[in-house]
Amino acid sequence: MSSSSGSSMRTPRRRVAGLGSARSGTGHFWLQRVTGISNLLLILICVPLVISVAGEGHGALVELLRNPFAAVALSLALFSIAMHMRIGMQVVIEDYVHSEGMKVLALIANSFFTIAVGGVGVFAVLKISFGG
Amino acid sequence: MPGAAERPLSPHLQIYRPMLTMMMSIVHRVTGVALYFGTALLALWLVAGATSPEAFDLVNGIYGSWIGLIVMIGYSWALLHHAIGGIRHFVWDTGAGFGPEWRELLARLTIGGSISLTVLLWIVIWLVKG
Ligand code: HEM
């Protein structure tokens, strides 16, 4: 395999043709669509909510998030956005970072960042909502 | 890519005349990456709110400063542009909208829609919050 790669006239696609699928070909594509739809719906709900308390005092934020509907919508939005961000950035990394080591590091950093941002955001919403 | 053939596998990007549809494709990616980091600003704002009223006032003050507002306006445009671009992708996913006229129209709707909706959004914010 490796002996035939360097100067081969065969394209990367041709070399893997017939080897069978990696079994996860459409998974991320589909999840990007599904989370795109949920992002859209949740953002339509949450952007007006966030704008309504943006720049107001702390009391306005607490009052908003005491409402379970608002707290759930914002939590779900953060969760959906984090999933969408993670697989979206994974595609970008795979497109531009070609050295294997850097790519693996970037993919790990991507997972850490997106899950941290989503998790911390949801925790903050719930903490305020539950009255702490 | 290791083992990639040393010859062009597809037309050179450099010899393409920039086209609106091509720009919109790039901008969808750029706005996606911008929103990626922008979400951290939302999380930071919420964490400040969960920490103390003082921390919340501090972050609100930074976001409400003139430089903060420029970032907020940019963020809202990126979100609107990416959302409309996403809807355009959903149209394509049904198999529709690939013809030359449609591609061009969708590109114009995306850029025109995102700019006018951003202006409208900030007019409403300005009217409501003054
Ligand atoms: C804050 C919210 C959002 C963030 C952080 C975000 C982030 C991203 C990122 C990083 C990508 C990858 C870009 C690329 O591969 O070129 C992406 C792609 C995508 N986004 Fe979003 N996005 C958000 C909201 C939305 C919304 C509201 C929609 C739907 C209306 C949407 C629909 C899509 C679609 C369909 C793709 C795939 C495009 C493709 O296949 O080339 N996104 N997003």
UniProtKB/TrEMBL annotation, chain A:
Stored CDD domains: SQR_TypeC_SdhD_like (cd03495)
InterPro entries (UniProt xref): SQR/QFR_C/D, Succ_DH_anchor, SuccDH_FuR_B_TM-su
Keywords attached to this entry: Electron transport, Heme, Iron, Membrane, Metal-binding, Transmembrane, Transmembrane helix, Transport, Tricarboxylic acid cycle
Membrane topology annotation: Multi-pass membrane protein
Region ranges (Disordered): 1-21
Stretches that traverse the bilayer: 37-55, 67-83, 104-126
Location(s), subcellular: Membrane
Cofactor(s) the protein requires to work: heme
SUPFAM superfamilies found in the cross-reference section: Fumarate reductase respiratory complex transmembrane subunits
Domain of life: Bacteria
Pathway involvement of the protein, from the record: Carbohydrate metabolism; tricarboxylic acid cycle
Function: Membrane-anchoring subunit of succinate dehydrogenase (SDH).
Subunit and interaction comment: Part of an enzyme complex containing four subunits: a flavoprotein, an iron-sulfur protein, plus two membrane-anchoring proteins, SdhC and SdhD.
Descriptive protein name: Succinate dehydrogenase hydrophobic membrane anchor subunit
Organism annotation: Ancylobacter radicis
Gene symbol of the encoding locus: sdhD
TrEMBL record, chain B:
Membrane topology designation: Multi-pass membrane protein
Claim: S-adenosyl-L-methionine is one of the keywords in the record: no
Alphabetically ordered keywords of this record: Heme, Iron, Membrane, Metal-binding, Transmembrane, Transmembrane helix
InterPro entries named among the record's database cross-references: SQR/QFR_C/D (IPR034804), Succ_DH_cyt_bsu_CS (IPR018495), Succ_DH_cytb556 (IPR014314), SuccDH_FuR_B_TM-su (IPR000701)
Chief subcellular location: membrane
Membrane spanning residue stretches: 26-50, 62-84, 105-128
Keyword Iron tagged: yes
NCBIfam families on file: succ_dehyd_cytB
Purpose of the protein: Membrane-anchoring subunit of succinate dehydrogenase (SDH).
Assigned protein family: Belongs to the cytochrome b560 family.
Name of the protein: Succinate dehydrogenase cytochrome b556 subunit
Source organism of this protein record: Ancylobacter radicis
